[in-house]
Amino acid sequence: MDIRHHPDDEMLLAQATGRNDVGTRLVLASHLELCGHCRERLRVLEAVGGAMLGELDPATVAEDALERTWARIARQDAATPRRIDASAPPPLPQGATWPRALAHCRATPWRWIGPGLRWSRISVPQASEANLFLLRVAPGKYLPRHTHTGRELTQILCGRFHDGRALFGPGDFDAADAEIHHQPVVQEGSECICLASVDGKLQFDTVIARFFGGLVGM
Ligand SMILES: [Zn+2]
To answer: Of 32, 99, 116, 138, which residue is most buried, by most CB within 10 angstroms?
Structure first.
């Protein structure tokens, strides 16, 4: 796999220290499953974070702090469903695999949202605020030109697209924000499926695209 696009250090550091929101964490985890380069960078950042912790002055904690922490973890375990209906994720083309990071999530069947364009909403247990979805675009088709009210993170599961800035292929990661106006066009020969996490909404340029985007809550 020829991965050319990776998350930046800031995002990986936030992953290492548990500061990423759920959507970001899952998209990054999906990338890390495939990218040895980023796993190594994460390992270094975790080591740096650990060393920084070691240099902090010791703090005094309550005598029962450990006991209360264990009790809290036990309560969370009891409340967390082991696995939510991952029995029928939408089918993927041959050779593409679902990220293990999504094993506890539920995905709707593919839904038509435009010519050559389908999507599937992903719900994450106990994180209804996460705005995660899969996009499936047929060969030669495109996602209408748009920008973003917040950050849009994308992990390419299969296929290739060019969005005017660069070519993206399987395993690649992309981050776009309100300053980026793009139109991902899928290359001929293979459909493209992407996992995306969006803060806020996509803002499409055309009325029709806005209509369909609004229908599904993109
Ligand atoms: Zn990477």
So the answer is: 32
Place of tokens 């939408």: 90
Q: Does residue 98 sit in helix, strand or coil?
A: coil
| Alpha carbon distance 171, 6 (integer Å) | 9
CA–centroid distance, residue 215 to ligand 1 (Å) = 33
CA–centroid distance, residue 3 to ligand 1 (Å): 7
175, part of any domain = yes
CA of 29 to the centre of ligand 1 (A): 10
Q: How far does the centroid of ligand 1 lie from the alpha carbon of residue 210, in Å?
A: 32
- Would strands 146-148 and 152-158 be described as parallel, antiparallel, or unpaired? unpaired
189: left (phi over 0), alpha (psi -120 to 50) or beta: left
Q: Which domain holds residue 50?
A: 1-58+85-218
Cα separation of 30 and 193, whole Å? Answer: 13
Q: Does residue 74 form part of some domain?
A: no
Measure 37 CA to ligand 1 centroid, in angstroms: 5
Distance from the alpha carbon of residue 151 to the mean position of ligand 1, in angstroms: 18
Q: How far, in Å, is the centroid of ligand 1 from the Cα of 163?
A: 19
Give me ligand 1 centre to Cα 194, in Å.
15
Q: Is residue 71 part of a domain?
A: no
Report the predicted TM-score, pTM, of the whole model to 2 decimal places. Answer: 0.77
Q: How far apart, in whole angstroms, are the C-alpha atoms of residue 208 and residue 198?
A: 20
CATH number of residue 215's parent domain: 2.60.120.10
Provide the pLDDT confidence category of residue 66 given band limits of 50, 70 and 90.
confident
Q: Is a pLDDT exceeding 50 seen at residue 81?
A: no
